[in-house]
From TrEMBL:
Domain of life: Eukaryota
GO cellular component: cytoplasm; nucleus; proteasome core complex, beta-subunit complex
Protein species of origin: Drosophila virilis
Subunit description: The 26S proteasome consists of a 20S proteasome core and two 19S regulatory subunits. The 20S proteasome core is composed of 28 subunits that are arranged in four stacked rings, resulting in a barrel-shaped structure. The two end rings are each formed by seven alpha subunits, and the two central rings are each formed by seven beta subunits. The catalytic chamber with the active sites is on the inside of the barrel.
Designated name of the protein: Proteasome subunit beta
GO biological process, one term: proteolysis involved in protein catabolic process
Amino acid sequence: MANDMLTSFGRPRRFYNLMSADLPGTRFPASGITPGSSVLGIRFDGGILVSADTLVTYGNLARYQNVDRVIKISDSVLLGGGGDFADIQSIVRTIDQKIINDHCRDDGASMKPMALVNWLTRLLYGRRSLKQPLKAEIIVAGIEDGCRPYLSAVDARGSPFENYVAASGFARLIAVPLVRERKPIDRDFSLKEASTLIRDCMRILYYRDTRSIAQYTVGICTPDNCSIKGPFKAEENWAIADHVSGY
């Protein structure tokens, strides 16, 4: 009794139900409450392909299965979002408002993919520096200067990475090595080659990623226009399961 009085001296009694520094705080998962998994972008000789499945999970529950995570920003820009979908929605709303502000100025300027990436790096790095990070990984694809395909990824820390292939989530580990292995040495992919790669990668991601489903959408950006196709369904073949015995 005496020890209890000494340890609780100067503190409110437990029946007040007040917060104490000794109590554990609320901890959220690093990937967010409702994360989306992989996004994959591939540059080909006439534009960009961006693909993502339509699943947004709630923990390990496949809660939302018809969510478009490839988003059309303008006629020359596509955005693919991985990570916490709430943060992705917040980023897209901010981009939409920025586009409206640019339109109201009526100075002929429009948002290009490279400018969007530069702006996203500052937004994500600024939020991270304030210790209020946006738990999102963004893939930006588009046409720069009317003819040049542009593809870049921006991680949650605001670090950009431009290449002929960009990915977020599990696709960084599974899909990117496959794309690099099939890349021709002296030229870019053709549209047919890039489409085949997208199909193969989405099938493999469905097999390997527990937070993925067979349904996915594909965004294509060319000098003429940007559009989103689908949803498509990844091919499945589980015949090998008959040969599995035990774990």
